[in-house]
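2024-03-11 09:14:02 INFO worker-7 job=invfold-0412 stage=load source=structure_tokens
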């Protein structure tokens, strides 16, 4: 709920500030000296939760009549494996588990958006950290630094599999000779186009996830403002709008996790193919 000492714009700006190591907003667009501690904490926490979930599934797996948890995990594994089979034509020993991990990890990070926007502040105040931690954003995928970090990971996988499948000579030849042809006069155009393609893939997968989750988080903040109004209609609007958007947002967080996983598979699959 919005604080009485804050205007609406101050409330929104406060909830869009990160807990970082410098205690203020970075001056430029790119500042490698600034670390968003909240993004790092929650992304690592959700990664550990993903590992724990898979460990529990493996520990409780049985060849007898499976329980509900095992059935759900098996359905998820089969879904991801079928997608990997249809997209990646080659050894999927590492790629299919990677895609499964990416989907669950991104889903958990997205799902943090369903928590009340003021919950972290209330918890920090309750444990006596309210004066120490002024800013805290709980959704790692609503931070461009987080999503672009994952996008760079996908970029590294594209380069790795291109080199692994085609070899250094084959990869360089593809960069210089595709798509226009192998004539030396066309090498510079082929190389430029391929560089643009790699950059576009990296930016698109990161920006797509960030844009959708940032918009969802911002809508939750705006809905929370309704609860700060001193009228019964504002409170009712806050509860109704928050409930409706939360239900709809469940679809968004699942869909965005699935899209990120599918794009990861598509880009790795393209790295397996020769042009």
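2024-03-11 09:14:09 INFO worker-7 stage=emit residues=275
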């Amino acid at each position: 709920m919005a604080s009485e000492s804050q205007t609406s714009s101050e409330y929104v700006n406060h909830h869009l500030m990160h807990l970082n190591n410098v205690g203020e907003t970075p001056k430029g667009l790119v500042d490698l000296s600034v670390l968003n501690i909240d993004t790092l904490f929650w992304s690592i926490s959700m990664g550990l939760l993903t590992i724990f979930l898979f460990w529990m599934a493996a520990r409780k797996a049985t060849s007898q009549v499976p329980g509900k948890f095992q059935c759900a995990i098996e359905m998820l594994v089969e879904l991801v494996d079928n997608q990997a089979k249809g997209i990646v034509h080659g050894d999927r020993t590492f790629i299919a588990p990677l895609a499964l991990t990416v989907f669950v990890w991104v889903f958990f990070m997205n799902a943090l958006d369903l928590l009340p926007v003021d919950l972290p502040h209330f918890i920090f105040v309750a444990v006596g950290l309210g004066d120490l931690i002024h800013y805290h954003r709980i959704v790692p995928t609503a931070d461009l630094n987080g999503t672009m970090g994952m996008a760079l990971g996908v970029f590294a996988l594209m380069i790795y599999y291109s080199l692994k499948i085609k070899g250094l000579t084959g990869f360089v030849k593809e960069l210089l000779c595709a798509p226009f042809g192998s004539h030396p006069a066309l090498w510079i155009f082929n190389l430029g186009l391929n560089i643009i393609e790699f950059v576009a893939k990296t930016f698109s997968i990161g920006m797509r996830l960030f844009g959708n989750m940032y918009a969802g988080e911002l809508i939750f903040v705006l809905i929370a403002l309704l609860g700060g109004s001193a009228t019964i209609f504002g409170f009712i609007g806050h509860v109704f709008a928050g409930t409706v958007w939360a239900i709809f947002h469940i679809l968004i967080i699942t869909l965005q996790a699935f899209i990120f996983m599918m794009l990861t598979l598509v880009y790795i699959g393209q790295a397996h193919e020769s042009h």
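2024-03-11 09:14:09 INFO worker-7 stage=report msg="The helical segments are 8-15, 37-60, 68-87, 95-111, 119-126, 144-177, 187-227, 232-272."
2024-03-11 09:14:10 INFO worker-7 job finished
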